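Following the same procedure, backbone shapes were mapped to integers, yielding the entry below.
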Amino acid sequence: MLWSSVEAELGEAIAALGDPLSTNKPHGIGRSLARWKDLHVHSAQNRADHLRVVNALHDQLAEALRIRNSIAHGLKGYGVAASDGSSEAHFECRLNNGPEIITLRHLRVCLGRLARAGSHISRLTYAVSRPDEPGLQSLYDDVLDLMHKR
């Protein structure tokens, strides 16, 4: 459900930033994420403060997508947390990058970030379309702070 809301927010942002006559909409989360970033790079016209936040959010979402794909397409097993605390619950995955252990703690952090991503996408879309708006640096600082919240 979180990915559906993020993908919908990306679609709205792409429509707001892109050519309204374009019918070539990206299909799939990865392509939508790449198109969203490209549109910001084009629209921001070398505004380093804006692009720094866009790149950070893109990287965070790309990592979340990688984790999603590892679990959805490469799940091989799982482990439960030991009652003595010596191990934690995890997923064992194998996809393109070989074996990977994704802990429940890591997944929870990822899901928390995904839950806030739609708001970040919307705020950055607003910011790129209003480059002379006062207070954009505060917006960027706030988005970055929220992105690093666990």
